[in-house]
Amino acid sequence: MKDEMAPNGQFWHWLIGLIAYKSKNFTAQFVQTDHFTMRSVLFTLSIIGFMAISTPSEAQTPALPPPYSDAVDAGGMLYVSGQIGRLNGQLVTESFAAEAHQVMKNVGEILRKRMLTHDDLVSVTIYLKDMKNYAAINEVYRTYFRGSRLPARVCIAVADLPMNANVEIAGIAQMKRVK
Length: 179
Description:
Blueprint: H1 9-22, H2 35-54, E1 71-74, E2 77-83, E3 86-87, E4 90-91, H3 96-113, E5 121-128, H4 134-142, E6 152-157, E7 167-174
Parallel strand pairs: 5-6
Antiparallel strand pairs: 1-2, 2-7, 3-4, 5-7
């Protein structure tokens, strides 16, 4: 019996042969031209096609939040995770100085949430993508400390940073200052 949907049975032989060749899931038993088998194959193909179309790609799936806390209080110390120059979810890109200022503001905001300031930092780690920015980061960094006591610090050159940032800063602050 010829399929009503295809006047030429050779088309079905070609299509089923192509599917059998491309996929090991289809076998030669489907190479029949009766109406029932063609409808079954078309239904199977439509389901496979629907699954391929409706399966979300990586670009369509929502981005998960990063798997870390912005800061952790442990043993009277506040460990501030590395911050980049993001403002409203976007990297500040006007200049290196503008990006560095935003990084320091982001660190400051985390400290302020715990009623601390930059002056409570006891250790800072700076990650720079280009050590040519060392003098520029020092210039920006210095403006965030009021006292003469500066935190211990290390500056590390790195190959890359999240969101293609140029600088990332992490720190450790003392929760209760001894006077």
